[in-house]
Amino acid sequence: MTLRTEPASSASRHEPGGSCVPSGIGSASRPATTVVVLTWNGTADTVECLRSLCPQLRGGDRVLVVDNGSADDVGFAVRAVDPRIEFLANGTNLGFAGGNNVGLRAALAGDAAWVLVLNNDTILDPGTLDATVRGAEELRRALPAIGVVQPVLVRADAPGVIDSCGLEIGRLPGARDLAAGRSTATLPDAPVEIFGTCGAATFVHRDALEHAGLFDEALFVLFEDTDLAFRLRAAGFRAALLPLVHVRHKRGVSAGARSGDAAQKRKFWVQRNLVALALRWWPIGALLGAAPVLAWRALQAFVLRRGPCRPLWSQSVRARREARRRFHDAGGDRWFGRTFGELSLRR
Q1: What pTM value is reported for the model?
Q2: How many CB atoms lie within 10 A of CB 89?
Q3: What CATH number does the domain containing 132 carry?
Q4: Same domain, 237 and 316
Q5: Is pLDDT of 345 > 90?
Q6: Which residues pair with 152 in a beta bridge?
Q7: Would you call 171 helix, strand, or coil by DSSP?
Q8: Above 50 in pLDDT, residue 12?
Q9: What pLDDT, on the 0 to 100 scale, is given for residue 344?
Q10: Are 50 and 136 in a shared domain?
């Protein structure tokens, strides 16, 4: 399945600046949900995110704000938004993976069936949380293998433009945001299967996390959502997109500055982590075909030297045989170079 090339019907099209929630969704009762919001020196965006989220909470819902050692007084600011918010201070920057894992462990210690990992630079229009929970529940009732879903991420400054429909993995090692830059008018009318979900808005069932594990903290930041998508697939779970539910995303805020030392760190994490994922998940033919590029990425990571490389790559090599076997046996190889898949829902 591919995105539509013709405009959506007027009944399902998302008009820029209009409601992102299909009519009739969000009015009935739904399971309790825990939302994990990670923050690091982004208090203003975090507060805006929470102000859009908290009015949508229902009885039993939890919001866990995890701080990765921000320099400002983010704790005071978020508690002022809503007294129901639980604030967890790490005291230091554990990265996207480690910071979110603190929240995920706290969420799994509770009784919520679903956990929403939500970037602090997102904005939820009214009804979005209800629509996401109910959409995920309906999918899981029809297809119990559904372990994770994602609303469509749209650009905060241009809500008619897609930011991410999930993750797309190439035939050669690499991953990118699916359908980024496309018009929301090209979205399908019904849920579709995707390889995996973008970490900015990942709605995952606790059963999936308990079987596949949490984010790999050795990756620190960047492509940790891609690695989790591989592990969820290898554990037998499937991912789906909710095309009628949209979340606005300020792309680039969470990645920080794109110049100077911050840019060099980001370049290091991209090169190092892509090599790690290639060694762990891609077929041997893809590794041979991409050998020159992977060697260049490895050299770049060594030159930048912003963190350990060899221990992570060695870990990937050790895990490769079992990881590849499980991923292949689960039918995961069909997703290399693929975008969307059909969902045959039982009624």
Answers
A1: 0.91
A2: 14
A3: 3.90.550.60
A4: no
A5: no
A6: 246
A7: coil
A8: no
A9: 65
A10: yes
